[in-house]
Automatic annotation (TrEMBL):
<dbReference type="Pfam" id="PF13426">
    <property type="entry name" value="PAS_9"/>
</dbReference>
<feature type="domain" description="PAC">
    <location>
        <begin position="243"/>
        <end position="295"/>
    </location>
</feature>
<dbReference type="Pfam" id="PF01740">
    <property type="entry name" value="STAS"/>
</dbReference>
<dbReference type="InterPro" id="IPR013656">
    <property type="entry name" value="PAS_4"/>
</dbReference>
<dbReference type="InterPro" id="IPR002645">
    <property type="entry name" value="STAS_dom"/>
</dbReference>
<dbReference type="InterPro" id="IPR000700">
    <property type="entry name" value="PAS-assoc_C"/>
</dbReference>
<dbReference type="Pfam" id="PF08448">
    <property type="entry name" value="PAS_4"/>
</dbReference>
<feature type="domain" description="PAS">
    <location>
        <begin position="45"/>
        <end position="89"/>
    </location>
</feature>
<keyword id="KW-0597">Phosphoprotein</keyword>
<dbReference type="InterPro" id="IPR035965">
    <property type="entry name" value="PAS-like_dom_sf"/>
</dbReference>
<dbReference type="InterPro" id="IPR000014">
    <property type="entry name" value="PAS"/>
</dbReference>
<feature type="coiled-coil region">
    <location>
        <begin position="21"/>
        <end position="48"/>
    </location>
</feature>
<feature type="region of interest" description="Disordered">
    <location>
        <begin position="422"/>
        <end position="442"/>
    </location>
</feature>
<feature type="domain" description="STAS">
    <location>
        <begin position="312"/>
        <end position="427"/>
    </location>
</feature>
<dbReference type="InterPro" id="IPR001610">
    <property type="entry name" value="PAC"/>
</dbReference>
<dbReference type="InterPro" id="IPR051932">
    <property type="entry name" value="Bact_StressResp_Reg"/>
</dbReference>
<dbReference type="InterPro" id="IPR036513">
    <property type="entry name" value="STAS_dom_sf"/>
</dbReference>
Length: 442
């Protein structure tokens, strides 16, 4: 190869090497530009994450495997009443109130599982405890490991939950211990739950299910009437209207209670019935007392009527063998029957020989009354006594004559006084022998 050719080849090689260097320089510049952009992106992302954590309304803190706090956001620090700088480097055990062994077990669980969610009690700088819910993760970054934890206070939440539990316990105590028979039903009438009073009396389970409707339960008896009343009540309440009925509830051992049942619908915001509350008031003793009172009242009425009958038809013994029955007011069929009954009983009981019927106080005598007086006189005569009718006024006398009343069986006198004289005179004339003859006739 000649020198000129070698020189040309050398020049070409130098040119090629120079071009390669330029290309590499251009590529390096491009890579440096891309790297700068990536660094800017990473910086923006890091800043965005930092700002998010700084502004978050949830605590964030990093804890090393040795238990030291590596970093935290302002919310975590403010929740505990510290400055961020005071917390950095502090042992987590100074913040977490759990016993050391329990805290160590929690850290071991996070390391084993990689993550855990738990409730802890942190202590503020002023010593006030703060209940928090913590979500902690084990983070591995190259040759470094630490715990990344988010937390938020739940003291108020726990207080509300405790208040809700206490309220529920109070409601449950009232629900179970009340003397009322209470059941919760679906709108279709299926038993969801009943209180202890209902369960103890009927033997039903406190919590029911979606089985048969409550009116098909065995504790309504065998007649079917109670079940129909309950079914009608449930259907009315299920339709959105309050309802009531009175039924008998049967329990084991032949126990029976009369219940005044009130059913009320519970409506949702759209007005649809979602639940029916059935409240049964035990009115067994009340109904028994009402029945006794009605029976007593009926007996009192009977006694009053008997007293009135006696007062309206008084039978007065005046002397041995003489009875007087003064009649006052209007006579009707019922009173005439009472008069005759009392008159005959008195004649027998008093062994009377003479009965004076005084009609001075009777305003009107019609054919029926006149006939009744004649029949009374005849009945008394059959018992061995005679009847004297006194006090017949002009109007009554005219009425009796007008209707053709036959008074041959009765002695009539104008006044009660004259009747008494007649009866007493007859008694004295008859003497003891007369009385003996009357007793013989009887």
């Amino acid at each position: 190869m000649s020198d000129s050719v070698a020189l040309a080849i050398g020049r070409a090689k130098v040119t090629t090497d120079q071009d390669g260097i330029e290309r590499l320089r251009a590529e390096n510049a491009g890579l440096r530009e891309e790297l700068g952009k990536l660094r800017e992106v990473m910086a923006r992302r890091e800043e965005r994450t930092r700002r998010i954590l700084q502004a978050a309304l949830e605590g964030f803190h990093l804890v090393g495997l040795d238990g030291k706090i590596l970093d935290c956001n302002p919310f975590f620090a403010s929740t505990l009443g510290y400055d961020r700088s005071e917390l950095l480097g502090m042992d987590i055990g100074q913040v977490d109130q759990r016993p050391p062994e329990e805290l160590a077990a929690a850290i071991a669980e996070i390391r084993a599982k990689g993550a855990a969610r738990f409730v802890a009690r942190h202590v503020r700088k002023d010593g006030v405890p703060v209940d928090v819910e913590v979500s902690s993760h084990l983070v591995s970054l190259e040759d470094e490991q630490f715990f990344s934890s988010f937390s938020h206070p739940i003291t108020e939440q726990l207080r509300r939950e405790q208040a809700l539990r206490e309220s529920e316990q109070k409601f449950r105590a009232i629900f179970d211990e009340t003397s009322m028979f209470i059941s919760l039903l679906t709108p279709e009438g299926h038993l969801l739950e009943c209180n202890r009073t209902m369960a103890d009396f009927t033997g039903a389970l406190p919590r029911g299910g979606e089985g048969e409707p409550i009116w098909e339960a065995p504790f309504w008896g065998d007649t079917g009437d109670a079940a129909e009343h309950v079914r009608a009540c449930v259907q009315k309440a299920g339709a959105g209207a309050s309802s009531s009925c009175e039924v008998e509830l049967h329990g084991p051992g032949g126990r029976v209670a009369t219940l005044d049942v009130k059913m009320k619908p519970i409506l949702d915001t759209s007005g649809k019935t979602v639940l029916v509350i059935a409240e049964g008031y035990d009115v067994t003793e009340l109904r028994r007392a009402e029945a006794e009172r009605a029976s007593l009242q009926e007996r009192m009425i009977d006694a009053q009527e008997a007293t009135i009958r006696e007062l309206s038809t008084p039978l007065i013994p005046l002397d041995e063998g003489i009875l007087v029955m003064p009649l006052v007011g209007r006579l009707d069929r019922v009173r005439i029957g009472q008069l005759l009954e009392r008159l005959l009983q008195g004649v027998v009981a008093q062994r009377a020989a003479t009965v004076i019927l005084d009609v001075t106080g009777v305003p009107m005598v019609d054919a029926e009354i006149a006939d009744a007086l004649i029949r009374a006189a005849q009945a008394v005569k059959l018992l061995g006594a005679e009847v004297i009718l006194t006090g017949v006024g002009p109007e009554v006398a005219q009425t009796m004559v007008g209707i053709g009343t036959d008074f041959r069986e009765i002695i009539t006198l104008s006044s009660l006084q004259s009747g008494l004289h007649h009866a007493l005179g007859r008694s004295r004339r008859g003497g003891s022998s007369g009385s003996a003859r009357r007793r013989d006739r009887r």
